Amino acid sequence: MSNLQVPLSCEQFEKVVSDYIDGALTASDRATVDGHAAQCASCLALLADVRAIVGNAAVLPSLSPSHDLWAGIARRLDTPVVSIGSTSADSVTRARTVSFRMFAAAAAVLVAVSSGVTYIVTRGSSASTSAPTAVAAVSAPTTTPTIVAATEQSDANPNAKSALTQDNETASVPTGPASLTTGSEPGLRSAARYTSRVESSTNFAYEREIMAMRRIVDERLSDLDSVTVVQIERNLRIIDNAINDSRRALQNDPRSRFLSKQLDRALESKLDIMRRIALL
Amino acid sequence: MSGPDFEIGALESLDPWRSDAMAAARGDRTAFERLYRAHMQRVLSICMRMVTDRSKAEELTQDVFVRVWQKLPTFRGDAQVSTWLHRVTVNVVLTNRKSDNAGKNRAVNDDDAIELTPGRGAFVGERLDLEAAIAGLPRGARQIFVLHDVEGFTHEEIGEQLGISAGGSKAQLHRARMLLRQALNR
Known about the structure:
heterodimer, A: mainly alpha, 0% strand, B: mainly alpha, Rna Polymerase Sigma Factor, Chain: A, 2 domains
């Protein structure tokens, strides 16, 4: 059934020229358009131009990048991700699916545990400050060999830092005549310096990883909707607060194994969340 | 086991990229790189013509392949790999558009974008002119023109992806064609 008015005006012709080219008109309407084009040079030119545009658009050549983009893509694929135990599609999908409620719950648990442990440790250490200091001072010379062993271990084992702190605490038990020496302050400083150096190198590794992930996360956040971004940023802030709390507590008690582990756990949690965001 | 083998063989003959897609879904980086090499130019072309900025288009192309890598395990093979990949591309570009709208300045105003088109005289058949004229279209009209006339999506598919009606897509396409003609004949 014809919808077009006959005779067709040039204005109407222009309105239906796209439908004509796309084959969206009925046979009788096509005949009406053909009839008008046969008598109107300007509408015939319009039809020819639009046909040429559509025809040329369909065969536009593919474009090439200014440089090989694969390296940048491969780097992003290399981003450490949650481990995928099984190669089945279902398990991979599950591993790559992220729940923001889970983020919130993880952050809340982290803060609660962090605050609790920090409170217990700092209260315990302030109540018995003098005794452990004295024992550590007396035993410092004997800790040196232990530290060397831990250094070797730390090269091969990323978990060596906690082994080192544990060794230091074990070494605080007096073990022989040398432990009775009172002039052991240099040894203590050396042990503290070493602990601090290991601590800062571990922190540096975490910071470097977090900085690298931050760039990827920022890119991903720009693709997400604003509600999700707000929630992610809030969870990251909660974890940042936990990290800062742990760092402050460690400044007061740098040799605390609990606080050190606490800081590691908070940093690891932050990295884990960032890795998940990178996969969104 | 001849049944499944035959079926897989038949599917592969229909879609030459299916086996690489399946391998990449299992983590095969080499198979994924082959997919990238085969489809990169088309993906870049879609991005480039939809956003008109080369560095942004290259950035989006990388985003597309990272997204494809993440989503491959969910690819069930209902469509051809290339079709699916182009849909992912359009989604990435459109998602980027939404985030641009949410927080960034828009470099080109929809109403005056066509004014950026260089006037080179009337020569409709010139491809370079057509590329430049497409780049000068208002964004909405440009995206629909690229999706329909360059990439071959239907109005229904475009409507679904852009969240508009098929009729709205048709109207924008017509507007785009008229603007292009005007720009190319100046």
